[in-house]
Design brief:
Elements: E1 3-5, H1 16-20, E2 26-28, E3 33-35, E4 55-57, H2 64-74, H3 90-93, H4 99-103
Antiparallel strand pairs: 1-4, 2-3
Length: 112
């Protein structure tokens, strides 16, 4: 099992999760985060820390596509280990549907 970041992180990018991760498996894009599925130790401490409820275990239905999404971008984006301010759009974008298709950016974030 692994945990993955889903589309509700897009345009929010809360980073509370990265601060509690014991293995530094979060990677930062311009407007979202991802978890490297091979580095995640399945401890689950990140899931309750996400204000947007965007982190899910891969055992939930329809998570296979998110595992591959997280894998792809974690291999090209920089690691992030320290909490940063969320995006200015976080509060208004939390819970908006269709964010992957409408707002996702492949551009990397700054990382640490």
């Amino acid at each position: 099992m692994t945990y993955v970041v889903t589309d509700n992180c897009i345009m929010c990018k809360y980073t509370d999760c990265v601060e509690v991760c014991p293995v530094d498996c979060f990677y930062e894009g311009e407007n979202t985060l991802v978890i490297h599925p091979d580095e995640c130790i399945d401890c689950g401490v990140c899931e309750p820390e996400c204000p947007a409820d965007a982190i899910r275990p891969d055992t939930e239905p329809a998570m296979e596509e998110w595992v591959e999404f997280n894998r792809k971008y974690s291999e090209i984006w920089p690691v992030i280990t320290q909490k940063k301010e969320p995006l200015p759009t976080a509060a208004e974008m939390d819970g908006v549907t269709g964010k992957l298709e409408k707002y996702f950016s492949e551009a990397p974030g700054e990382g640490d």
